Known about the structure:
Layout lengths: L7 H4 L2 H4 L4 H4 L25 H15 L9 H15 L10 E5 L6 E4 L3 E5 H6 L3 H16 L2 H12 L2 H13 L5 H5 L4 H10 L4 H17 L5 H16 L7 H5 L4 H12 L11 H12 L4 H15 L12 H17 L3 H12 L6 H13 L3 H14 L4 H13 L3 H14 L6 H12 L3 H14 L3 H14 L3 H26 L3
Amino acid sequence: MALKHSKTHQTLPSKCVIWTVSALLCFPAVSPAQPAAVPTLGSPAAAELSPSVERRLGEAIMVQGRRDPEYINDADLSQYLNEMGRKIAAFAPGGAPQVDVFGVRNPVVNAFAMPGGFIGVQTGLIVLAGAESELAGVVAHEIAHVTQRHIARGLTQQTQGGHLALATLVAAILAAMIPGGGQAAMGIAAFGQAAMIDRQLGFSRDAEQEADRTGVEMLRKAGYDPNGMALMFGRLMNASSLNEGRGGGVYATTHPLSIQRMTDMQNRIRQYPSGKFQGSDEFWFVRAKARVLQALDPRALRQALDQLEEEARAPGGQAGAGESAPRRVAAWYGVSLAALARQDPAAAAAALQQAQSFKISSPYLDLQKIDIDIANRQYAAALTAAQAGNKRWPSRRSFALRVSQTLQGTNKDREAVTFLQAQIKRWPNEEPDFYKMLAVSQDRLGESIAAKQSMAAYYERVGALPAAVTQLQQARAQSQDFYVQSQIDGQIRTLTTKISDDRRLLERFK
Length: 510
């Protein structure tokens, strides 16, 4: 679903629907009715834009987006959103599509789907959600736009109509793919172009209903409460009416939430068998973190701190008792995050102690303790805690990142290299920062060629292929080893071929 945006803080979302190129080149009760059948929009296979082409277009856009200041490079948030998205997508009709869900640092309530299954969720929407199923309901709706090929159809129509905005964005992406062309590309893609493309991709009423119905079915099958979608859309309608003209209801105003859609959704949900649904406690921690992440200035951070303290002190019985306990623990965690963001580690430690008094185990609390130790330059204590957390929570990449960070902070670069290589073997593509951290330690150890190869791997995984080629060329020039040179030559050929293929693919959109 394409979403329209406004300017400055209320126009920040315009950078998100189709990411701009420049930032990256620098380095209520309703009457019942019978639910209608899903609207027939034609076979998804009929769209001219193939899934592989659509995916590559999305990847090209995301190369720019990952360097935008609003893009959230946070392992916990990314892991949570992607696990949610892929859990829902597993029940997509016709098979699970490739889905990548990422966070966007913006208090405006919004979410959007881009070409190729890339889905952005703004922090404002996460904070607005009153339960995990509500957030999952929006994610399911966006995934449905992907599975039903609505974006592919919209892009095909734009190409056929010769719309200027898409052509301009593609020209900027192509310029960025030429070595030394970054500065030229910066002057081509403006935020207005992204907003224009967004408007051009607006979906019809039938497409929105199709996404509702497909989304709520995936939501239910994935184990989330299907009422979450209806509840969240009700919140979005209220946000739209309360914030009209102030940017607070972007999702609803660009995604018309009519009474007819609400009625259809509610009636469909009533037909499902009743059941018990349990949301994860992690949602509350992600929500608290999102509230702090979107506070971009001291005033906003102070406001976030006040809101979190109010939530943390809300009536709910004694510590550890009642259903409100996880939410209150998460609120205290958020208070600690906000205090640390204000460079007050003592206040952060005091808030963390309040959270720990509930005796609820959470990796987020353990991670916060490590970050407080790092802020206090207590690297030895941080390293011990990070290693313990990595053993206790082995599936969470955040602990592996903290272990690496603290090893480097204590000048244990040889240990860091060994540790990072093991993490890369385990997670070869999920966490590009492992490669960048590996390059830092290798460079400190005087292993310049290996460091450049690691940086090339990092750039390759974030999609910056020309930068990856440059790193490999520099590594080859330094090497005197025939076998290393041959290996690097093969990598350069592979990447340059991919760049050429991508150029040819994008030319069709000019």
